[in-house]
């Protein structure tokens, strides 16, 4: 079994969703996890540090048994800008702000940012599965798209900078915070767009991380 298969089997076996994994220079293995979702559940229920540490400990053991080469291991949430990679991700985050990048440009642009919504049937009863609703500076517009038209998609972090009322701890902040646990290895198409013009919103703040050092 290759290392990707080992990671996926371990993460899903513990009851989590594997959002992604990657290896980078210096032997760092990054694993991004989330809680599985089903219709009717809260789509933003966060993974916490205990979840990350649980997966980290199990991965340390399994990667050692399978003799997978790595130097450091980091398990974390996918962050506020969580990628949307599977059809269930789009269903899960309907109503959220997203940024999509098309495989092919339409009228000179590929990126669109706005509210994710389910597709709407036209007069002939046909519809693309999804749409993003955005404002072009004058009025709301809708871009309809199919998943095979999308190169990449992710959530847009929504952060409030409002101060909390006096006497209350903390203000309303981001919907989620990224949390991570680290470990060191001691041994080794055609588009049905109504419009394609929108101004980009300001870049959102990066997610925070909570790190915990774990040693075997």
Q: What topology does this entry show?
A:
Layout: H1 3-13, E1 17-24, E2 28-34, H2 49-65, E3 72-76, H3 87-92, E4 97-106, E5 109-118, E6 130-135, E7 140-145, E8 150-155, E9 180-184, E10 213-215
Parallel strand pairs: 2-3, 9-10
Antiparallel strand pairs: 1-2, 3-9, 4-5, 4-8, 5-6, 6-7
Which features would summarize this protein structure in a list?
single chain; 216 residues; alpha+beta; SH3 type barrels; 2 domains; 5-stranded mixed β-sheet; 5-stranded antiparallel β-sheet; 3 helices; 10 strands; 16% helix; disordered C terminus
Describe this structure in words.
The protein is an alpha+beta fold. The protein has two domains: 3-79 and 173-190 and 193-215; 87-155, SH3 type barrels (Roll), CATH 2.30.30.100. 16% of the residues lie in helices and 31% in strands. The chain has a five-stranded mixed β-sheet with strand order 1-2-3-9-10, covered by helices on one side. Strands 7-6-5-4-8 form a five-stranded antiparallel β-sheet, with no helix packed on it.
- Please state the structural category: alpha+beta
Question: Strand portion, in percent?
Answer: 25-35%
Helix content: 10-25%
The largest sheet, given as strand count, sense and whether it forms a barrel, is: 5 strands, mixed
Short synopsis of the structure:
This protein is an alpha+beta fold and 216 residues long. 16% of the residues lie in helices and 31% in strands.
